[in-house]
Amino acid sequence: MDLIYWKDTERTGMVFTGLVVGLLSLFQLSIITVISTISLGVLCFTVSVSLYYKILQVLNMGDGVHPFKAYLDLDISFSGELADQYTQKTIVTVVSAANSLKNLFLVGNLFDSLKLLALMYLVTFLGVLCNGLTVYFCQSNDVCFSPIPLLMFQAKVDGFFAGIQAKIDNVKDILHRIAQGGGPTPDPTPGGAKPKTQ
């Protein structure tokens, strides 16, 4: 919560800048490349600092304490009870999700399955317009803290919503024509004359 309320501006700025840079890099590169590059950067930093402290120890200018000793000594193991509690919560969540998906895909409730079908149909148009990371980036809480990324992608967002509105209008038109008897689309040219092509 301290990050969200900007209580420590330097720390919050570093965290949110890192998140935005990570999201921007995922736009251009694969997740494998991003993870491997971040891992290389962290390893280069930690190995360099460790070697620097070793050299200081050899030259008798340092106390020989490992530079990351405080982090290495942190206990991140679970107690048996805590591990059991998290395992039970995970199992209940997975089983509940599997049961819901089973009912949706195997038509346990026709209305819910039709809603999922319509949603997946609309999601295919969403996938054509932009990838999921673009939607996440535009809706991300991290980006909401800074207006600059929103301004940078305003044209993309407007184009995205215009495309969705066009698809919705098209579906409405098709449903309206079906309700009216399913005739062909009326010819917009007067008298039915076809425009000349050159």
From TrEMBL:
InterPro entries assigned: Reticulon, RTN1-4
UniProt entry keywords in alphabetical sequence: Endoplasmic reticulum, Membrane, Transmembrane, Transmembrane helix
Localization per Swiss-Prot or TrEMBL: Endoplasmic reticulum membrane
One GO BP: brain development
Signal peptide interval: none
One Pfam family recorded for the sequence: Reticulon
Region (Disordered): 179-198
Protein name: Reticulon
Organism from which the protein derives: Oncorhynchus mykiss
GO terms under cellular component: endoplasmic reticulum membrane; neuron projection; postsynaptic density
Primary location: endoplasmic reticulum
Residues in Reticulon domain copies: 1-198
Transmembrane segment boundaries: 20-53, 116-137
Domain of life: Eukaryota
Membrane-topology annotation of the record: Multi-pass membrane protein
